[in-house]
Amino acid sequence: MLARIEYALRETWASFRRNLTLTLAAVLTSAIALLLVGATFLIQRAFENLLVQWRGDVAMIVFVRSDASPEQVALIDSTLRAAPSVIDVDKLRYLDKAESYAEAQRIFAGDAVTLSLLTPETIPTQFKVVPLTPDTDLVRSLADQYRTLPGVEAVALAEDEFEVISTLSGFVRTVTLIMSLVLLVVAIGLIWNTIRTAMFARRREIEVMKLVGATNWFIRVPFMLEGLLQGLIGGVVSCAGVWALNSAWTSGVATFKPGTGISSLVVPAGYLSGVMVILLALGAVVGAIGSAIAASRFLDV
After folding, report:
1. Where is 198: in which H helix or E strand?
2. Quick one: angle between helices 216-253 and 2-18, nearest 10?
3. What's the pLDDT tens digit per position in 148-198?
4. Would the pLDDT of 301 be above 50?
């Protein structure tokens, strides 16, 4: 068993050296394609951060002062529920201090100044309001009424920011995803061509191996391993690129004036780590697909 593993690794390395130019082209194409895939994930998460507070068809948020009394909170709640023909009272949600702070940590992930000013004790709580009517003028008139209630700090409307952000998010995500898919197909083709070339260069050796009784899988494994490693190396390079891109963006956002809303576009490190794992797995899959097709198609040389 150890001898077979050693043979597979030795032959894989030898094939890498023999087809260095094609290998580099396949690795770089895979890396660029996977980088675009990673960027698509990051862009989607960044725009989701901007829209996180408007999920679930929320069109209005009533912010309650952190020092509001329980009576004032109850008054705001009863006032909201007093308009069942306009507001979906079944979907009315109240976020307490802990829930509001957790949401703020995501929204202001890249704005350390603003986030440092917020604590679970001082952050405003909020009511998430889902209207039953598409009449924006009616919703705005209700918002004007709610702003005068005791304990209300502010009222925000989704229409002021949702349409532009969601449209831009969809466009950027679609473009980057299509580009990444096209490049992934190109990467599979390059890996396929690299393995095909390697097998053609060793066609005499493969004939001899088959004559002395070597199985098809014994011959295929080094070539399949070569393709898998090409995709995996491309994944590693793309991970480095995604990390550098995200670090540069995070550092750049830190220079913006606090309160501009740009800080919401920062992606947390935990999510970035998950994206890197996906890129490594996807790179290995791309390499395995390209090499498996070539190894099966061109074994009889």
Report:
1. helix 162-201
2. 60
3. 889 998 888 776 555 556 666 667 777 777 877 887 888 888 777 777 777
4. no
Q: Write the burial class of residue 233 (CB in 10 Å: 0-12 exposed, 13-18 middle, 19+ buried).
A: buried
Give the integer Cα–Cα distance in Å for 176 and 35: 10
Q: Based on the number of CB atoms within 10 Å of its own CB, is 174 exposed (0-12), middle (13-18) or buried (19 or more)?
A: exposed
| Structure token pair of residue 214 | 């070597």
Q: SS3 helix, strand, coil % of the chain, rounded to 5? A: 70, 5, 20
* Domain range summary for the chain, segments of one domain joined by +: 2-51+163-297, 53-157
Instruction: Give CA–CA dist 99/120, Å, rounded.
Output: 9
Class of domain 53-157: alpha beta
Q: What single-letter DSSP state applies at residue 254? A: T
Query: Could you read off the pLDDT of 12-58 as tens digits, one per residue?
Result: 666 666 667 777 877 888 888 888 888 888 877 777 776 665 565 67
